[in-house]
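Our consortium's second objective concerns turning raw sequence data into structural hypotheses that experimental partners can test. To show how far this objective has progressed, the report includes one record in full. It was chosen at random from the queue rather than selected for favorable results. The single chain below, 314 residues long, was entered without modification.
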Amino acid sequence: MAKKIKEQLDYGNRPERMDPNLERKLANPEGLYSQNPAMKKKEADVQRLVSNRFQKVAEKLSQVTGREDLSSQQVQGMIYQEMMRKLPNIMRIEAAHRDELEQLAIESSLEESEVPAEWYKIEAYLNREPIDVSNFRMKPEEEEDDEEEKEDGIEIPSFDVEDLTKDEIFELEKHKRNIINAIIQGAAKKGHYMFQKPDIKARLDEIDPSLYGDYLGIMAINDFLYFSMEQMIEMMSETGQGVAGKVELSDNDDEDGEEGEEGEETPDTVIKAFGLIFPILCHEIIKGLEEAKGRHGLPKEPGFRQKVQVQKDI
């Protein structure tokens, strides 16, 4: 297994390495994306894509910190502590401009996602209260075994729906949902660095010029730790500790009526985004927008749709 990992993961010229636990997951032929029909070379494609992303993340942190070698856990820990020491000052500055930053996050996220403002009702909350993780689903539910015995590893012989069994269609729907969720996460990741856009940076500089550099450092080390300390991040995710943002989608129960001004329909979906700091709030808003659009990729039949979501959504 170690030899296969070494062959498939490409670290380029970077000295840093991913968490060994993550390397093993990426090399697993039974992994979440390895079995997806979109990955023609299975785990080899997954390893190639993730290791390419890791190179870029490591390079960005190296540029931000001025350190060419970030492979030492001692160095990583020191950088993390240095960045976290800046967090109270960021939150103090943001607290004095909360309304302005929440509106900026909404406007910027809509523009980034190319979503018309009237499609959804967006509520943004920038560190207004502790994030409630009581309703978090930390991991998808396990699939329940049907009474009838099922074969392991269903093969999809054809993509003609008329030729597929119910179990084969369900398998394809799960694969499709995995890809949609990956797209949602990838799109939302842009929110972490929207503050780098010239127009947004200019508005942040008017508030306080220190925000830009502090945001850059915190988000760069945050990205890096997802790869290098995967076990720690996974543990925090499962317990809800250290959660810095979340988004919720709900039906719009606006009592003002179904139509707004000039007969226009009001949005049918409310997106509530919560973020500890501005870049995270942008991330959560974009994630909410993409999740709202991603609902159209779910099965139309309610029971079937719920079964897919229960197993594949977190």
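The partners drew two points from this record. The longest strand covers residues 245-251. The beta strands are 121-126, 245-251, 269-275. Both points have been shared with the crystallography group to help prioritize constructs.
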